Automatic annotation (TrEMBL):
Residues 334-347 have a biased composition (Basic and acidic residues). Pfam families: DUF3231. It comes from Natribacillus halophilus. InterPro entries: DUF3231, Ferritin-like. Residues 325-347 are annotated as: Disordered. This is DUF3231 family protein.
């Protein structure tokens, strides 16, 4: 019996777990999105240094997709359709974003992939799935460093604010450390500054994307959805930025002037809508981490309030995609009640 179990372990991988199936499915769709975005960007980018970064981002996503396809084919798992350049990209469309914006976009995509792949490592079991997550993480880290170095070299990197380094150990001795509404409020901590700065930064990128998407979207409902996204991003930038400015800390620069005036879309409405909902998912995750890292009550409650606002927009985006038959069904667990009913009907 032991020999049979050993032979099985050597010759056959265990079945994919729910988390592994979810990772294969989600990673594939998001890689296809990145491939389409970078395909369009590469048609218009002029700076050779930025072209190199975008080409790396596209190649990494293609290589990551190939790893996923290999596992799916071996397991006879159908892959999602995702996005296809021939269907979701218009290469002849005029430039929508500046070269500088494309470079910072690549950096933020790398950050999102680093977060996703890092989380994936902790929930996979099989060695081939671990390899996918680790390889994806390594490639995204390399892309982030390349994009950051180009931004620094060109003088367009938004460096987080600097504060004096601590000179001695200190302990909190009053509950006023948590206070944020009444009475004197303490200064922001380094961790709170980090989260506020990051959330302004991601919203400035999101606002510029929404501006561009709203200009070029064909469907009126989709266009209205992007305008709403732009307004929400602007509001969140103002809220988080004001907390930094109260401490005389500079928020990151905006990207609004890096959107052209074209009304011809380089992307399908389907791709842009999905991209928006994906950005909202990232934002909700960021706000959750920021809440945990912000003990000052007013800041934590601000994140909770704004998180609810973007969660409603995510739901409306999902409903919009359902109405347009754009939303692919994630892999579900078997409906045991339906299966039992079906068997009973046959009997």
């Amino acid at each position: 019996m032991k020999q049979e179990v050993r032979a099985l372990a050597e010759n056959q991988s265990p079945d994919l777990t729910a988390s592994e199936i979810g990772i294969l499915w989600g990673y594939y769709i998001k890689n296809s999105l990145i491939i389409c975005m970078t395909t369009a960007f590469l048609e218009k980018v002029e700076d050779p240094d930025i072209h190199e970064v975008l080409l790396t981002a596209k190649k990494h996503s293609q290589d990551n997709s190939a790893l996923i396809e290999e596992v799916c084919q071996r397991e006879q798992m159908v892959m999602p359709k995702g996005f296809i350049p021939s269907e979701d990209v218009n290469p002849s469309a005029p430039r929508l974003f500046s070269d500088a914006f494309m470079l910072d976009y690549a950096r933020h995509i790398a950050i999102a992939v680093i977060t996703s792949a890092g989380a994936g490592i902790s929930v996979v079991t099989r060695s081939d799935m671990t390899n996918i997550c680790q390889t994806t993480l390594q490639r995204a880290t390399e892309l982030h460093e390349a994009a950051k170095e180009r931004l620094l070299t060109k003088g367009i990197y938004s460096r987080p604010p600097a504060i004096p380094v601590p000179k001695e150990v200190d302990f909190v001795d009053k509950q006023t450390f948590l206070r944020g509404f009444l009475g004197e409020r303490r200064a922001l901590t380094a961790v709170e500054i980090t989260h506020l700065f990051e959330n302004v930064e991601t919203n400035t990128l999101g606002k510029a994307l929404m501006m561009g998407f709203a200009q070029v979207a064909k469907d009126p409902k989709v266009k209205k959805y992007f305008v709403r996204g732009k307004e929400i991003a602007h509001k969140h930038i103002e809220v988080f930025g004001s907390l930094l400015k109260e401490e005389d800390l500079p928020p990151p620069m905006g990207w609004e002037t890096n959107v052209t005036d074209t009304t011809v879309s380089p992307f399908s409405d389907k791709l842009m809508t999905f991209h928006t909902t994906a950005l909202i998912d990232i934002g909700i995750g960021n706000y959750g981490l920021s809440t945990a890292g912000s003990p000052r009550r007013d800041i934590g409650l601000t994140y909770a309030r704004l998180m609810g606002e973007i969660a409603l927009m995510a739901e409306d985006g999902a409903n919009l995609m359902i109405d347009k038959s754009w939303l692919e069904q994630p892999p579900p667990a078997p409906d045991r009640d339906a299966l039992a009913s079906e068997k009973g009907d046959r009997g």
